[in-house]
Design goal:
single chain, 2 domains, six-stranded antiparallel beta sheet, 4 helices
Length: about 160
């Protein structure tokens, strides 16, 4: 006599081994991975500029040898520095033109051109403006250059305004 079949065995349907389990096609998986990489690239593209600006902030150019006399950073508006240098006003102006700046020269006062007149003190040389850009970020600057100060303290002073 054969062993009686249990009810549990009788309730279980026979599994058809001829049907494969459902699988994701390889092309669909590759397409999904490509889409994920494109999305990650777009996100990185948007984040890279500000991240670069945080890690490597842009500054306005300053000639070598210039020493800061005063720095002002108001709550609103442009940040400014007052610099003193042994360079002449013309050399400072040439430096900023070499940095891509656009300079407007001030007319020479009469006492500079005619040494027979009494010395009138420091005078304006030029005003230069420019812009630095990197990774989609930028900083604009404006420089007011004056010369004619006593040689022992540096004949040229310039005020640099930075707009971020």
């Amino acid at each position: 006599m054969s062993a009686p079949e249990s009810e549990a065995d009788g309730d279980r349907p026979d599994r058809d081994v001829s049907q494969p389990r459902s699988r994701v096609p390889v092309w669909a998986a590759l397409l999904a991975m490509t889409a994920a990489l494109v999305a990650a690239g777009l996100i990185l593209w948007r984040v890279a500029g500000p991240l670069y600006g945080l890690l490597f902030p842009l500054d306005a150019p300053v000639p070598l040898g210039a020493s800061a006399v005063r720095h002002e950073k108001p709550e609103r508006g442009a940040e400014s520095w007052l610099y003193r240098t042994a360079l002449t006003g013309g050399e400072v102006t040439a430096f900023y033109e070499g940095q891509g700046g656009s300079c407007r020269y001030a007319p020479l006062p009469g006492y500079v051109a005619d040494r027979s007149l009494p010395w009138g003190g420091p005078y304006a040389v030029a005003t230069c403006t420019g812009k630095e850009e990197a990774a989609g970020l930028g900083v604009s600057w404006e420089v007011y250059i004056h010369t004619g100060y006593p040689d022992e303290v540096g004949p040229t002073m310039f005020r640099l305004y930075v707009y971020r």
